[in-house]
Amino acid sequence: MSSALDVVIQGSKVSPALKSVAGKVLTGERISPEEGLLMYREGSVAFLGMLANHIREARHGNRTYFNRNFHIEPTNVCVFSCKFCSYSRLYAQREEGWELSIDQMVDKVKEYDGKPVTEVHIVGGVHPKMDIHFFAELLRRIRAERPDLHLKGFTAVELDYMFRKAKMTRAEGMKYLHEAGLDSLPGGGAEIFAPEIRDQISADKVDGAGWLDIHATAHALGMHSNATMLYGHIEDYNHRIDHMEQLRQLQDRTGGFNTFIPLKFRNHDNEMSHVPETSVIEDLKAYAMARIYMDNFPHIKAYWPMLGRQQAQLTLSFGVNDIDGTIDDSTKIYSMAGSEEQTPSMTTQELVTLIRQAGRAPIERDTLYKEIRDYSSVDLNNWTEAD
Ligand code: V47
Ligand code: SF4
After folding, report:
1. pTM value?
2. Domains of the chain, with CATH numbers?
3. Which long-range contacts (CB under 8 A, 24 or more apart) does 331-335 make?
4. Helical residues (DSSP H) of 202-347, grouped into ranges
5. Which residues sit with their C-beta closer than 6 Å to ligand 2?
6. What is the pLDDT of residues 273-317, one digit of tens each?
7. Residue whose CA lies nearest to ligand 2 atom number 5
């Protein structure tokens, strides 16, 4: 056990049970769901933060990852009706919606010609007319345009709908898209797996078992993926631990997840606007618990467009070692849900400065966490975005 921290823990005014679980965390021993729940219930933000930061620094030191990416959102029309979603428009209300053609999306990719972006993240609503062949064609066209870009796309929710509509098994559908150019999956659509919560907030889309199976299918093909958890609405700590436990078990089997991303529920302009948002203290506890519990996930990410820049900085002392990327797009999912970030786009300089201000070392990575550049001592005054 790390001695200085152990002295602090032994001297702190917490229960012997909490001290004992903290001791396990410090020696790198896995904690059980019951122990996770105890930590969530009894641990203060400072106590959990201290442990999470210890794990983060033992694994990554000061290194904090970001990438240069952009988003494409093919449509916000969605056949589903998640109550927390401020973004989707029903097919019948398309006047408020958008639907991009393949040419329009390829034009978007062309805007990045010659720019050193490494990833495009494709995510949107579930449109009844955009089927698996439409998206396979989109992937092939982007691949032909920019063979160097990593194509990360489609939540398990979008994939489940595409596969069912095409009457393909999950394995057939995934292979088809992988061969068309899909490299990895983002982590969206996971929400909370427990049926008693999922049925209340997003009853009509793929269930927790289906979400996990789709990610397992991708992992079996050698593809990587991320996982999210939508927290801070009607769930309780039990549901969060159950959610993280199911992800941890799948990761034990496949090793295919890169990053775990807790997503803070935002309550603007959706059917759950009456549910208050969590405090910054609860947010920091959620990140710290993610780092403590998800011992087999290499990275914990704070998605800055949703949290806001300053709170994203704060999470870097509570277990987080990744803050996504430049994003650079009209990404609407969070601005429509009430996030402070109405224009989710940061230059590389801004991201690097944000990480440096938090006392961390900014490292540009690719999607699979290969390090591209250490910006710790780059002189930003003599640097341009093309470097
Ligand atoms: O699944 C929707 C969430 C997710 C709201 O893998 C909301 O790198 C909060 O998963 N309040 C999609 N959250 C976004 C996503 C994502 C984003 C960035 C990076 C990655 C990655 C994944 O957004 C949805 C849902 O959980 N969401 N509405 C809301 N009102
Ligand atoms: Fe559709 Fe996704 Fe919004 Fe649910 S969260 S309504 S699946 S766009």
Report:
1. 0.95
2. 3-60 (no CATH), 65-382 (3.20.20.70)
3. 331/71, 331/73, 331/305, 332/73, 332/76, 332/87, 333/73, 333/86, 333/87, 333/123, 334/266, 334/305, 334/306, 335/305
4. 208-220, 237-254, 280-293, 304-307, 309-315
5. 78, 80-82, 85, 87-88, 125-126, 157, 202, 205
6. 999 999 999 999 999 999 999 999 999 999 988 888 999 999 999
7. 85
